[in-house]
Amino acid sequence: MAADPIIYCLEQLTDYREFEKLCCALLASQAYYPQIDPIGGTDDGGRDAIVRNDESSGTIAFAFTVRKDWLTKLKSDSKRLNETQNKLDKLVFVCTSQLNAKEKDEAFGYIDGTYGWHLDLFDQARLRAFLVQPGCTLIESHPSIFTPCFFAPPATTKRYFAQQYLDQYASLFQTVASSTENLAVEINREMYKWIGWVVRNAKTVELTCYDATTLNALTSLHNALAKIYGVISDEHYISPSPDSWRMKFNNRERSDINVQAVLAAKKVEILPYLEEFRVALKDFAELSKDSPSAPASW
Description:
Distance between the termini: 46 Å
Radius of gyration: 24 Å
Number of helices: 10
Oligomer: single chain
């Protein structure tokens, strides 16, 4: 057995579907590729490439393999991509092999020289470097890859994830939790954008959380916030000027809509969602209540 249990587990890995899940979670958690998500593949010991569009990097393809002949897999995947994709800017290739400098140079040279794409290459050593970062829970959450008896997961894993997330959005969550039904008709402009950001990126965050208890609490929190965002997101919200601090419901009388009825209905509609959010926030905060940095107000 290799002296390093992470290296040993990666070297013994043959289940490419589990490896795909690990890769997607790792790449998403590092914020390199937040739009990545698992899709189906073929039983070839590796993965069919996954294609995603990214505003900053153009069209990106992802390919994962647990095969020892990683270079052969790299060449076959890139050939297939070149045949099926009209335009590709980057290939992200992840393998479980340990690559030396010469092998990496060969891979970079082949992809650039043959197709003109940028190659982002993850090998065994690079994977390990991410897996041992403080706060990373991917080893614990993938027991089919990383044999549990080889590792001693910290008792504070659940607390750490919940605490870190609460710390990141403490101001927003506390403001939403303390809001009244008036949130349905008038909202701080930056708060509106912030809620939208959290809702749009909820699935990416959930992809990095594999502890069942924490994930269930996190999903409930996101779902409640999404319902609130749905109430305050329609065509009748206006911002009077670019410099305005608020967004409010356009309450000018119109022939096509009973404005006062809509305002009243929205205030009623948002109330149960606000209560649902408060309950979800309290449940999620329970996971970090023993943490020294958890706000007392949770």
